[in-house]
Each structure stands twice: as C-alpha cells, then as structure tokens.
Amino acid sequence: MDDANGLPPRIGIDRPGSFSRSVFHERHPVLIANLLEDFPYPPRIRAELEELLAESLDGTVPAEPPPGPDTAAWAAQLAPYAGKPWNDLPFLWAEAYFYRRLLDAVQYFDLSSPWRGVDPFAPQKGRQHDGPEMLRDLDAYAALAETDPAERRRSLLHAALWGNQADLGFRTNNLQAGQGESAGDVVVDDSDAVAELLDAPGHAPVIVVADNAGREITADLALIDSLLETGTTAVELHLKADPFFVSDATGQDVLATLDALDSIPNEPAGTLATRLREAIGTGRLELRTHGFYTLPSTYRELPADLATEFAAAKLVILKGDLNYRRLTGDREWDPATPFDTVASYFPGPVAALRTAKSDLAVGIDPARLAELDQDTPDWRTSGTHAMIQVRR
Ligand SMILES: O=P(O)(O)OC[C@H]1O[C@](O)(CO)[C@@H](O)[C@@H]1O
Description:
One of its GO terms (molecular function) is metal ion binding. With 392 residues, this protein is of the alpha/beta class. It contains 16 helices and seven strands. Strand 2 (206-209), helix 10 and strand 3 (235-239) form a beta-alpha-beta unit.
C-alpha cells in the first residue's frame, strides 16, 4: 500500500518489459511517425515533435507549463514533477502530459499560427468514418431495427462496450485493422445492474463520459438514442475539449459522425442521425465538455462542479480504458479487489464499460482470474477482453 493514502502505488513507466513502458518506447515513436506522414508540417513543428519524443524517452520534465488556455491548471499539475526524469513519472500523468505537450508542438493553441486548432489526429479519426468496419457496424445496427426496444438497448450497450476496442492509439502496434475484432470475452458483465439503474423512476439525466471518436462514438450515440427511446429523460454526453490520446472524441468529432451517418447509404443510420440532431436541438441530448477531462487527474480529484453533476445523475457511464484508469487511479490493485471498494468514493452510481488495454483490472473473480492468466496471459492488454462493472 502507498503510505500516504492507503491506496496501492501508482503504475509507473520505469519497469523494463512492462506494458506502460512499451507505450512510451514502442507506441509513441509510431504515433509521431504517423503525424509526420499525415501532415506537411513545417521544419519547426517536425523538430518539436521529434524533440518531444526524445525528451519523453530519456529527458526530464521542464518547469514551464505549456502555453494555452489551460496553463494555470498545468502549472499546478507540474509542480511536483518539474525537473524529474520522465522515467519516474506515473503512467497516467506522463501520458496526459505527453498529449498536452504534443498539442503545443503542433501549435494547436498558438493564436499566431496557421496550425492553430488543426486536430493532429483528424486524418486518423476520419479514416474510420466510411471504412468497411464502420459499414459493417451500421449494417448490424440496421438489423436491430425490428427488435424490442429493451432488447435493442441491451445489444447497443454491448456494442458500445466493444466499440471501445476500436481505439486508434491502441492500433499503432497492436491490433491491425480488422484483426482480432469482434465481441470477445466479457470478463465481468453487470449489464443487468445497468438496466435496473436506467429503469429506476425519476427524471435525472444519464451522463455518458465518452472515449473515442469513430466507431466507438457511433456506437455510443446509438446507445444514447436507445436510452432516450426507452424512458431516459435526458442524456449528457461529456466530450474532450481538445484532441487527446489520439482518438478521443471532441464535439467536432460528434458533428463529423452525424454527417458520416447521413452520407452512408443505410437508412436506419440516417434516421439515427436525424433523431440525434433533434435531441440535441431540444436539449434532451446535451453535448458537454470540461477542462478536467484533458488533465492527468483521476476521478478522486473531481472538480466540485462535475462532482455535483455526477451526484445528481441517474447513472454515469464511463467509457473506455482511460476512464477506467482514472476511476481506479491507475494503481497496482490486486485484480480481486471488489469494484465497489475501488469506486466507493465516486459521487453517484457509476458503470464502467471498457475493453482491457492496460495492466489494470479490478473486480475479477479469483477463479476466473487464474483461468485467464493461465489461458490468455495477455488478456489485460490485448483489447480482446472486456468488462461492464457497476457501483450503485
Ligand atoms: O481509448 P481507451 O480505451 O481509453 O484506451 C486508451 C489506451 O491506450 C493507451 O493510451 C495506450 O496506447 C493506454 O494507455 C490507454 O489505456
């Protein structure tokens, strides 16, 4: 246990052979190479990206916060880490800081730059929109049209779960497109508890904290439409304010998804887009964002305004691996630790929907864990195993 707070130690990036270290040493070089291929960046930006990569592999953290609208928040974040080797940073903190510095390198917040506001990951996200996998997903969606609404909601909950497999950062050198995709093994499935919470009386909103753009946000939007159809009064969809972790969804990405749904020759997809636009227009679906989501903080450090909203919601659905890491603090938990215990501090009922893509796991039955570790040793990081976990 970590002495300071009685919690296990935070996962670091220093251990040779660890997954977290491979994210920096194996994935990030590919990620930077992809950016340099996708954009005709000028020499200054190219150099900044390469310097950032080198610094993150064996340099130290500078004291100056990156300039931009969130500089004050980052100054506070940097205080304990300035001057330290990157190698000594907690994994979650280091990754969030890497993505923030990446935005700085591509002049995303620079008012005097023509590159201001250009999402460095837009080409990668956009390529998902009319890809064969998306068309297949939407065919599967169309096939649900005649299903009973409650049954459809259940199917769409699982679609939203597996949509998380399609994360692009993860694609850099793990699953190749089309490979290993499909509903794999759901290690924990609390979907009945999700349904009970959704069907509880009352008009409080359901909050969906989004993860990735492309196929995942498409599945999330289909789920949200189904929530609105089956009695949920209002849904808030919480998005990133700025590009983050390659494929994380922003408001811009939601609009691009609605346009893509309209342009695909699939009638149920088109009518889904129409209903979603109407829901946004009437306020039943509210698109939201908050600076918290692009900081390295965990959900234990929720700002008061978000904590109040979460406490008042009927259910908060946290999508994806990164939200799972923030919920659990990205710590070295014993995987048998009950989810209820780990998430006990959360201000209201919470459901985590995640395909496992980092070493972390909690709430796993010990017998099942032994079986998984024996049969599929990489189940925690391969994206082939998933969980729906609920704390009421
Ligand atoms: O898109 P998700 O499900 O949040 O997953 C992002 C995952 O990708 C990684 O950034 C690694 O590439 C993990 O650290 C992280 O957990």
